[in-house]
Structure formats: structure tokens, C-alpha cells
Amino acid sequence: MINVVFFLLIFFLITAQINPIEPFEVSLPMAGRKVLVKKANILLIDSDELLSFDDIQGNAVYQALASRKNAGFSLLIRTDADLPARNFVAIIMRLTALGITRVELAAEYR
């Protein structure tokens, strides 16, 4: 009987997946339950890359954002889940080129 227990122990040790050691430690961001953001600081992006900011749509949003940014400017981005990541990164890079450095991404918690 003890042989069966040892065989099971060896089987589970061999088949168990051991997590690889990470090359460096990563501090994950904390999500808050409530985000208080003014309506004027919300950028909406749909799955076809249509931008909307404070009743302005399309590429004119970039000019509006460039004129409104200041030292404490923070932008909340609400994007469609179907927007491809490469398109989202392109939008973020364009915002960075405008000097917008504080960006928050809204996500749904399930």
C-alpha cells in the first residue's frame, strides 16, 4: 500500500507545473473602485478608432487635447474592447507626442 502512495506522490511531482522564476519583480498597478474624473477629461474611442472628447469628434480631438493640457492634466480613456491593441498604441503614441503624459484606462471589472 505504501508503494502506491509513493508512486502517486512521484506522479504528481513529475506532472505538476512549476512556475518559472521571473527575471525581475513587477509592481502591478492598483485599481480603485471609484474614479472621479471631470466629464471634460474623458476620451472615448470606438472599435473603428473614432475619437470623441468634450463634444468634439474625429482628428479635431488631438487639437482640443493639445490646447487644454496643463501640468496637472489627466485623461481618462474609455475604449471599445474590440479596438485592436496596435491601433490603441498608435493613439497613445500620438497623445504622448502632444505632451499628454498622465493617462488612465477605464476597464470593466467582472
Largest sheet: 5 strands, mixed
Series of secondary-structure elements, N-terminal to C-terminal = HEEEHEHE
CA-based shape: elongated
What is the arithmetic mean of pLDDT? 79
- Low-pLDDT residue intervals, each spanning 5 or more residues: none
3D architecture notes:
The chain is of the alpha/beta class and 110 residues long. It has a domain at 35-110. The protein has helices at 2-15, 60-68, 85-97; strands at 42-45, 51-53, 56-57, 75-79, 103-105.
Give a short synopsis of this structure.
By secondary structure, this protein is of the alpha/beta class. It contains 3 helices and 5 strands; from the N terminus they run H-E-E-E-H-E-H-E.
Chart the SSEs and their pairings.
Layout: H1 2-15, E1 42-45, E2 51-53, E3 56-57, H2 60-68, E4 75-79, H3 85-97, E5 103-105
Parallel strand pairs: 1-4, 4-5
Antiparallel strand pairs: 1-2, 2-3
Quickly list its features.
110 residues, alpha/beta
